[in-house]
Write a structure and sequence with these properties.
Strand content: 5-15%
Low-confidence stretches: none
Distance between the termini: 60 Å
Number of helices: 10
Radius of gyration: 20 Å
Largest sheet: 4 strands, antiparallel
Structural class: alpha+beta
Number of strands: 4
Order of helices and strands: HHHHHHHHEEHHEE
Mean pLDDT: 78
Strand order of the largest sheet: 1-2-4-3
Shape: globular
Length: 293
């Protein structure tokens, strides 16, 4: 028991330090890349964004830890009740996240114009709202893993998502030099859906080994962003079933919400898969046009 506690504490502490250092490095790089005007706009958006993050996640992880700990402390015959509690908590988290996202989307233009005083912030506010459902579900999962005294999956997931997010931000900004500041800020805040897709590919396609994952980004006519993620792993036997909320083949440590979260972020989501040969996920999102002051 003591060894497990120390191991989990070390994992959480180490990952937290790494994530904070990575975040600090990203902010320093953003300041140099976006310049004073862009960074100022980015900070304005974060001020509003943080309020909705609080609405989506405040107290969720603590409540999930306590409720799941109570269920898991019972006899083995009561584990079905624990799974039921996890499903209810995930559903509640998803509803809370979707509500926060809908509210931020509905007020994005108003907040940009009347509160922040810069209409260029509207696009970034709309894109950043799409991360709310995943953040709420992640808060539930953090509580679940802490209750089980098993934090390694959570740590791995967070590190993977942060790595993918940083890589996408760097790619987006280096490829969009000269575009409007509002568009670039929107891209900085729009990598959540892609990081979730990559995380799902890694976890489900190669459950017992390492493998290849390819990601392609295209700007199509009409300002449509196309994101293609492909793996050559075990594939999905029944795509329609896999896209149902709460369905997972990854055991009790996975939420079964990956495709649901991606669908809530994007304008369209297509999944092609062949068992034993791999999976391709194609996502499309309309990019807001440049907004003149």
């Amino acid at each position: 028991m003591r060894q497990s506690y120390l191991k989990n504490a070390a994992l959480l502490t180490g990952s937290d330090v790494v994530l904070r250092l990575a975040g600090m490095g990203l902010r320093i790089w953003l300041a140099n890349e976006l310049g004073g005007e862009g960074m100022g706009l980015y900070q304005l958006v974060l001020a509003v964004y943080s309020l909705f993050v609080t609405l989506a996640t405040a107290g969720v992880s603590v409540a999930a830890t306590r409720l799941m700990a109570e269920e898991l402390s019972g006899p083995d015959t009561a584990r079905g009740a624990a799974r039921g509690m996890l499903r209810r908590l995930l559903a509640a988290g998803l509803v809370l996240g979707l509500f926060a996202a809908a509210l931020q989307l509905a007020t994005a233009d108003l907040a940009a114009r009347c509160w922040l005083g810069d209409v260029r912030a509207a696009g970034a506010l709309r894109v950043s709202a799409l991360g709310m459902p995943w953040m709420a579900v992640s808060a539930v999962l953090r509580g679940f893993f802490i209750a089980r005294r098993h934090v390694a999956p959570n740590v791995f997931s967070q590190l993977t998502e942060q790595t993918v997010r940083i890589a996408l931000v760097a790619l987006a900004l280096t490829r969009t030099e000269g575009l409007a500041v509002g568009v670039r800020c929107m891209l900085v805040l729009g990598a959540t859906a892609v990081s979730e897709a990559v995380t799902n590919a890694i976890v489900h396609a190669y459950p017992d080994s390492l493998g290849k994952v390819v990601m392609k980004l295209k700007i199509l006519k009409g300002g449509m962003l196309e994101i293609i993620i492909r793996d050559w792993g075990c594939g999905i036997e029944n795509v329609e079933q896999a896209r149902r909320p709460m369905y997972t083949t990854g055991g009790s440590e996975r939420s079964g919400m990956g495709f649901t979260i991606m669908e809530s972020f994007m304008d369209s989501l297509k999944v092609r898969s062949v068992a034993g040969r791999g999976t391709t996920v194609v996502m499309k999102k309309k990019i807001a046009p440049r907004i003149k002051r």
